[in-house]
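Structure tokens please, single chain.
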Amino acid sequence: MTDQRSATAPAPVTVSPGAGIALGALGVLAFSMSLPATRVAVQTLDPWFVAFGRAVGAALLAGAYLGLTGAPRPNRDQWRRLSIVALGVVVGFPLFTSLALTTQTSAHGAVVVTVLPAMTAVFAVLRAGERPPPLFWIASTAGLALVLAFLAGSGSIRGTLSLADAFLLAAVVLCGLGYAEGGVLARELGGARTICWALLLSLPATVPITTVAAIAHRPQAGIAGWSAFGYLTVVSMFLGFFAWYAGLARGGIAKVGQIQLVQPVLTLIWSAVLLGEAVTPGALLVAGAVLACVVLIQRTRGGARLRP
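Here you go.
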């Protein structure tokens, strides 16, 4: 029997580059502290509990939000696409980063996450039908090269591929897929509802795994550990996606996704504040250069074109 509450969307999202950039930047700011917070949390909490427990907590918030707003249920095709979003951003990225950061620093994790904007752009072409112009790829590559050069100079790149690096690479690939698919779906459902339904869809997996992890390793942490876990739950897994998916939907997945080029530098700054890691003055120079690349990217045309 067909659910009469099912609907494709309240209204299609209108393309608005300015709003997309602003919302995307807000999302990047929220996500920039995810790796340092994860690093703090997994020092005292089981990484499986951190990865899936925060998804369970965020799902409770999502259920409350959907109930209060009277959101219509997605249709069958949207549920299928929501499963891709859930695989990428609810399960894949949190799990693999939690496993990686049990042995690696958040600064090292920022190296691999630098590839995320490019991965998001690739999936924007594959999943969203976007066709960025050559100048877009030139500016994106320049921004990526600047950040990698800075991280290499700061000593974050070790030169070898460890198991933690493999986990981080898997996280980046799945996250890029989840970002692109969620950005497309947010044009129909809206950014908030996209992440909320993806969180609820994940509950049959996240609840059992969280329960087993909690039984195997009783969650015990200090104020810092629980504060980090709370941030991951409320901001990284929930509120940050409200702005991020809305920005991708309005400004174009490939173009807005490149704002993430600033995220590794921000992550290093948060790492210094939270974990006491040193940040050189060169970070400010690189940040300015990367911002210039981001501005150039936003001035290119064609990145926000929707699939027919």
